[in-house]
Amino acid sequence: MDWFPLWNSLRIAAISTIVIFFTGIYAAWSIAKLPRVLKGILDVILTLPLVLPPTVVGFFLLKLLGPYSMIGSFILETANTRLVMEWYSAIFASVVVAFPLMYRTARGAFESFDPDLHSAGQTLGMPNWKIFWKIVLPTTRQGILAGTVLAFARALGEYGATSMISGYTPGRTATISTTVYQLWRTGNDAEAYMWVLTNVAISFVVLLTINSLEARQSPKRAIQEMER
Amino acid sequence: MKNLLALLTILTLSLAACQAQPAETDPVEDVELYVFAAASLTETFEEIGKLFEAANPGVKVIFTFDSSGTLKTQIEEGAIADVFVSAAQKQINELEAGNAANTAGLDFVLAGSRVNVVENKVTLAVPTGNPANVQSFAELASDTVSIIALGNADVPVGQYSEELLTNLGIWEQIQPKITFGSNVKEVTTWVSEGVADCGIVYKTDAFSAGLEVVDEAGSDLLKTPVVYPGAVMKTSQNPTVAQAFLDFLRSAEGQTVLTSVGFSIPD
Questions:
Q1: Is residue B207, in this structure, part of any structural domain at all?
Q2: Which of A91, A104, A221, B138 is deepest in the core (most CB within 10 A)?
Q3: Which H, E and C letters describe B75-123, residue by residue?
Q4: A/B interface, count of CB pairs below 8 Å
Q5: How far apart are alpha carbons B266 and A10 in whole angstroms?
Q6: Quick check: B193 contacting A, CB < 8 Å?
Q7: What is the pTM of this model?
Q8: Does B17 reside within a domain?
């Protein structure tokens, strides 16, 4: 059996998750400090891909990155590289649809972060970035990790936008989800079942991980960090 | 309160029971005709549908356009279809009782209703400006072509593509360059969006989408005739109207619409 889809899906999900981890946390932290109205509007815009059908996302991405678009044609001319119909095109799709999951979870975690801990760090003379990495993140660790795992799971399961922007080339752009669809279309149920079981197994592991991370935040850890 | 709930339940169930009775005694008024047709027939059939409705007041034609392979599976799984027009003989063969290709023992085709509706040509289409400068089917194997859009093994145009490319001897070597679409319209869109360097679609799809055609498969490359059969389904609730629709397709009016996009009429 051709195991390319497994390797392809995992690397797309992994890279997407790394991108989402940093952009999601940065957005959540910056926006948490904004005035209410602006925060609300940005929340809606950044959460939109979560509720839009993936085919709508795929449509927009094709129009944005396809060879006839401004961005697409520019990259094609300067770097002689295609943004669509390649394995890495699926990364764009996965990042867009999974970003809201990381963003919302991180926002929730940061919102419930005790601001007194932040002030305490400041009285001890810690710079803001150190406060963020040494106090905020470790304290909100559970929420951040849960968001990361959710984003990874969503990126792994992306189908609609991926199918439109990466196409389906076995051994080159095929993911688990597009492979199952094509195998079902061509009546190859036996192999489709194999992939379905593989995907269920991975999802199981992912969800068990989320479950074990769903503990409450501990301010105790933050205090320990400050005492160092 | 309890009595009220019981009363409401009985009323609701009676209403539901009323709706479940078939309207056998209704005359041919407000007939909904479900036509399953190959994706390449989208533009022409929608026009023909309107003409048919005008000529038959009270009839509403509801189309489902998709790859013939998908439609055949849907019919097999119990979808309501009065008429099925496929882009290849294969799909209707598999639904016809007594047909050699019918290994699953299916029986969906109403005896005597099967006719050949149109004939099409398989062509190589390119996006505006022909960026990869493709001129023929044989060139698909060269390095100037990076992405080829084809229908998958379930789609008639994909089956025709595989046949002609195998006959050319390049099918195996071009595999890494192929992106497989689920129906001919998806393939056509990939070409018109410029996302693929070229694609194999029907002459009629290239025409409707305004795509440039650089090569056409002759009978030396493609032995299977590209003929679209149509038939009334045995499960149809309106076989007379369904047969009338099939006859309309073969009438002068229907054929004018079909030939206007490049279909030809088989004997």
A1: yes
A2: A91
A3: HHCCCCCCEEECCCHHHHHCCCCCCCCCCCCCCCECCCCCEEEEECCEE
A4: 54
A5: 50
A6: yes
A7: 0.79
A8: no
Residue B158 CA to residue B152 CA, distance in Å, equals 5
* Residue ranges with strand state E in A1-141: none
**Euclidean distance between CA atoms B196 and B179, whole angstroms:** 8
For the residues of B224-256, what is the DSSP string, one character each? S--EEEEEEBTT-S-HHHHHHHHHHHTSHHHHH
Enumerate residues 36 to 95 of chain B having a beta carbon within 8 A of any beta carbon in chain A. Answer: 69-70
- Rounded distance between C-alpha atoms, residue A222 and residue B197, angstroms: 57
Tell me, yes or no, if B192 comes closer than 8 A to chain A by beta carbon: no
Q: Look at residue B237 and tell me if it is in a domain.
A: yes
Mean pLDDT, to the nearest integer, of A135-162? 89
Per the domain annotation, does B62 fall within a domain?
A: yes
CB atoms B195 and A172 under 8 Å: no
Domain that holds residue B160: 122-216
Helix (H, G, I), strand (E, B) or coil at A162: helix
Q: Exposed (0-12), middle (13-18) or buried (19+): which is A38, by Cβ within 10 Å?
A: exposed
* Residue B201: its H or E element: strand B198-202
| Residues in chain B closer than 8 A to A170 (CB atoms) | 175, 180
Output the domain CATH number for residue B33: 3.40.190.10
Written as six digits, the tokens of A208 are 């068990």
